[in-house]
Amino acid sequence: MGILSAEREVEKWDVLEIAVSGKSDKNPFVDYGITGVFAGKNETVTVDGFYDGGGVYKVRFMPSFEGDYTFRITGTFSDEEFEGEFRVTPAGKENHGPVRVANTYHFAYEDGTPYYSIGTTCYVWELQSDERIAQTLQSLKDSAFNKIRFCIFPKHYDYNLGEPRSYPYEGEPMDSRVLTRDNFMRYTGGSEGNKWDFHRFNPEHFRHIEECIWKLRDMGIEADLIVMHPYDRWGFSQMTAEQDDLYWHYVIARFAAYRNVWWSLANEYDLFEHKTIADWERYAAIICEKDPYRHLRSIHNCITFYDHSRPWVTHCSIQRQDLYKSAELVNEWREKYQKPIVLDEIAYEGNIEHGWGNITAEEMTRRFWEAACRGGYPGHGETYLNEEDILWWSHGGVLRGESHKRFQFLHDIMCQTPGIGLKPYAGSRFDEVCAVPEEAAQQIKQVKDYYLFYYSFMRPSFREFYFDEETEFEVRVIDTWNMTIEDRGRRRGRFKVELPGRQYMAVQLKKA
Amino acid sequence: MGILSAEREVEKWDVLEIAVSGKSDKNPFVDYGITGVFAGKNETVTVDGFYDGGGVYKVRFMPSFEGDYTFRITGTFSDEEFEGEFRVTPAGKENHGPVRVANTYHFAYEDGTPYYSIGTTCYVWELQSDERIAQTLQSLKDSAFNKIRFCIFPKHYDYNLGEPRSYPYEGEPMDSRVLTRDNFMRYTGGSEGNKWDFHRFNPEHFRHIEECIWKLRDMGIEADLIVMHPYDRWGFSQMTAEQDDLYWHYVIARFAAYRNVWWSLANEYDLFEHKTIADWERYAAIICEKDPYRHLRSIHNCITFYDHSRPWVTHCSIQRQDLYKSAELVNEWREKYQKPIVLDEIAYEGNIEHGWGNITAEEMTRRFWEAACRGGYPGHGETYLNEEDILWWSHGGVLRGESHKRFQFLHDIMCQTPGIGLKPYAGSRFDEVCAVPEEAAQQIKQVKDYYLFYYSFMRPSFREFYFDEETEFEVRVIDTWNMTIEDRGRRRGRFKVELPGRQYMAVQLKKA
Q: Which CATH class is domain A2-89?
C-alpha cells in the first residue's frame, strides 16, 4: 500500500487529480485499469481513471461537499494500491458548481444560483493554432456567452478542410491535399487513407482540450462537449462498437471531473449512417454509469429530433426544424418534453451561401428574445465570410457580427426574473410573447409579480394593459436592439404604454 | 308589348342596362319582380332585374360574345312586356373580360391574358366623403394594385366609429355619439337603437357603389366585394334568413353584370355569431343560381378556414393563421385545396397597436415575394397611425407605407412567367423558394425554361447552380427591395452567382 501525498486541499466542485506511475508494457489504454474511491462524510464516489501516456495514470475527482476526504486507488495498472486524504474547502466566489436542471424547464448551478444560458457554437475552436485559441478566449471573455458547444473530434466540412492541431489517436490521417471545396463530400467515407490505432489514444489531444475546458471554466463558461459528430473524413464516426465504447470511457474518465462539462452525445446524430438508436442508448448508458456527477446530457439533431423524453436526456438540444419558425416553437417543445429547451442551432448570423448560416443580426437577436421570453434558451453562431475563411461557428477567432453585442443586455434582464426561469404566459394576446416567472400561479386572472412582454418584429405604437384596479407596477420600455431601458413610472388599473412604433420592443412590468 | 330603344351597341363584357318604368305602389323591392332574357348566337342568358327607386326598374346584362342580340323584359313590375335588340361590339383594348381561374391555381381574364393579382384591402373606402374617395382612386391609379377588397355594408370597429355616407336600407341608425374607443365593442348587438326597414333598400347606396366599381373597372382593378361582414353596430349582420336572401338577390341583380366584380361572401365568416354553415351555403347557392357570369366566389376567415374544398368556392381567400408563418404556407394550401391561394390578409404594414396591423414594409414585401414565388397571390393593407385616423386598410386615402412602391416591380416580374402562373419547385433546396412555370414538367431532373429563386430574409453571398452541361441560361440578380435587376450574362453547366449578402434577393434564370 502506497501513501500518496496528493494536493492536500481542493475547493468544492474543483478537480482533485491523483497521478501515479504504472505499467507501460502492452497497451495501457486497453490492458490495464485504474479506479479511485473518494470518500467524505456525505459521499463516496467511485471513478475510473485513465492512462495519460509516459507511464502515468490519473484519477480525477470533483467533490460536492466540504470537509475531509480519503481516497483509495486500485487497479491492474500497478501491483501497488494507493491511498491518501485531502480536505475540501468552500467554493470560491465564482464557483457555483455544475449546472443542473431546475424548475423542470430551467437551469441553476448546484449552489442554487440561476443559470441563464447564452450559448454559442465554435465546433473546433480548440483544435486551431495557439494564437487563434487565444483570440477566441479573448472574444469569449468580452462576450456574454456562458456556454460553448465544441467537438472532441476534428471537423470535416465546407470551410473546414484543414487539419486539426492534433488527433485523438495515434496514427496518420489521409492526405488532405487532395481536398477541394468541390470534392470534399467524397471524402466522408472515413477509412480511405487513414491509419489510426483506435486502441491507442493520443493523450496530448485530450490534455489540450482539458486546458481549454479549464480556461472556459475560469471565465464562467460551460463546455458543452460534442463527443461524436458526423462531419468526418478520418473514420472517427465509423468506429466499431468496441472502439466507440473505449472512446466513451476514456472521455468520461478524463473530463467528468470538470464542473463546467456538459455531455452532448452528438451533433446531428441523425446524419450518422453507421449508428443506430441502440448505439446512442448504449453511449448514454455508459455516461449514466461512469459519470458520478450527473453532468447535463443531450443529443442534437439535424432534421429528426431524438426522443428527448428518454430519461437520460436532461434537456432538449434542438436544431430548428423549420426555416421560418424556430424560437417560436419553444412553447410546444416545453409542453411536449417537460424539460429545458436549449436551441443550440437556430441558424447563424452571417452571409455564407447556406441558409443555416446567413441570417441578420436583428433576426438572431429576435430569436434570442423570442426563445428567452418563451422560457427557452437560445444559442448563437456566426458565419461571416472573410478572406482567411475563419468562421466563428467553427474556428472561433473574432466576432464579426452585431447580435452578440446584445446578449449581455438580454442576460441582465433574464437575471431580473423572480425565482428561476420564465415561462410563456397562457393568457397572453395573440400578437405578443408574454413571459412570467416559472413559479407564477397558473390561474390566468391572478396578477403575477413580473411580466415581460416582447413584440418581436411587430411595431405597436402603444399597448394597453389591465390587470386589476389595485396592483401597482413599475413600467419599463425596453428597446432590445438599441439596448435602452426607459422608466415609465408606476401605473395601476387600466393603463396605456406608448411605444416608438419600431421593431424589437419589450415592456417590463414589475409589481411595485 | 313595348319596343325599347336601348343603347344600340355595347362592348363585349361591358354592361347593357335596360331601364323601364313600372309599378311603385306597395313595396316594389318585394312585391314586384322583373326578369330579362338576353339572346345572341352563342348564349341565352336570363337575369333578374331590380327596383332602383322612383318608379324605375333596371335589368343589366354582360354579353360574353360579339354579334347581334335580342332581349325580352317581363315580370310583375309592369303589365307590359318589353323587347328590343342590340349589337355587341369587340372588347376594347383594356377590356379583357372577367377574371377566371386558370391552370388550377391561377387566374386569367376571359380573353386568356394572365391575371397576376396584387390585392389591397380598404374595407369601406367607398363609404367615405367624395374628397376621400377621389384621393383613394388617385392612390390606386398610382399603384400596382389590380384588386381591392371592400364591403357593401358600413364597418364598425376600432378606428371605424364614424357614420358611412349612406346606408343600404331606409331607416335610421343608432345614435353614434355614445361611442368611444373604449366602449365600442358593447355596440355590436346590432338591434339597439337602429330603425331599419330591411325590406326597403336605399338605391342611392348601391348606385354609389356601382359608380365606384365602374371607376375601378376603368383602372383595371377587380372589385372583390365583401357582401357580409361581422363588424357591425347596425344589425346588418343579424338579419333574418328571409332578409338576408332578399339582400343577396338585390346585390346580385345590381352588381353581377360588372365584369370586375368578385363575390367575397364574408369577411371573417367565423365571427358571425348568428350564422351557420347552412346559411353560408344557402347564400352560395343563391349566387350560383343568380349570377349567370360565374364571377369568382370566396369566403374569408378570421381564425378557422371555411371548407375551401366546397365546389362553389373558386379560390381560397385566406387570412393568415399563424403570426410567424403566412405566405410560407401557400405550398400546403395549394396541395390541400387545388385552387388559387389568395392571401387576402397576411397582416398589414403599419404601426397600430394590433399585431395584425404593424409589420414593416420590408416584411410585407417579403411576404408578397414568398407568396408569389410559391404560386400564391398576396394581399396588402396599411394601418399607419395618423392625426386624422384615416387608415388605408379601412378608409383609403393616401398610402403612407413603403411596401406598395415595390409591387409594380414584382408584378412586372410575375408577368414574365412563361404560360400562366408560377408553382413552387419540388426540387428546391431547403433554404430557398424556387418558382417554375405551372406548366413545367413534373420531373425534377428535367430542366425548366424558367426559374425564379427567392432568398427571403437570408443573405447568401453567392449561390451555386447546376442543371446539366448543355442548357444555357440568362442570369439576372434581382434586389426585390431596392428594385434593381442586374444582368449577369449567359451561363451553363456548373455556375456560381455572386450576391450582395443582403436580404430580399432573387435570382432569375431564363433558358436562353
A: mainly beta
